[in-house]
Amino acid sequence: MPTISQERLTQDFLELTAVSSESLDERKAADLLTQKLHELGFSVVEDKAGEKLGGNAGNLYGFLKGTIPGEPLLFSAHMDTVKPGRNKKPILHEDGIFTSDGTTVLGADDSAGLAEILEGIRSVRESGQPHRDIEILFPVAEEIYIQGSGVFDFNRIRAKEAYVLDMSGEVGSAAVRAPSLILFRVTVNGRASHS
Question: Of residues 47, 80, 110, 133, which has the active-site annotation?
Fold first, then answer.
């Protein structure tokens, strides 16, 4: 049975939150995650999202061959953080709470999801537990209206089941369906009036 290493999960989270990763400046995060995925046996492809959006890194797609047949599973979490997200200094307090040093955001959104995905896959691989093919999508520019996902070629994805780790709430909770970002423009013709 897979066993999660709290120490390793904590270290990954601290390492990921320490990386400067504001939207369109995810290069360091992309390089770190590519290295970690390669260590787990993934093939990794970085697309041209950065060039298209004026950033310095693209979306990361990873694939790990499964040990049993079945539909692939997709896991996703975004690489970018809101501002101020450069030169972050995460602090782990004695009570187990993580904070920033107060000069930047912590960047838990979505370094927590990234660390959880990495540790989950590590624990399954170490346990020898059989698993289906695993696909990973780590997009850029999510915090600025999901622009990275907007230019990703979803024809690459084979999974019909996905887990996106980017939600707050009680541990163990999940959203089966949630609203997404939709922009629209409305023009109303007529006279102004009070209802």
Answer: 80
Question: Which residue in 46, 116, 119, 142 is the catalytic one?
Answer: 142
Question: Catalytic residue at 80?
Answer: yes
Sequence ranges of the domains in the chain: 6-164
Rama region for 2: left / alpha / beta (φ>0; ψ in -120 to 50; rest): beta
Tell me the per-residue pLDDT of 67-97, one tens digit each, with 9 for 90 and over.
999 999 999 999 999 999 999 999 999 999 9
Place of tokens 């320490």: 18
The answer to whether the pTM exceeds 0.85 is yes
Class of 6-164 in CATH: alpha beta
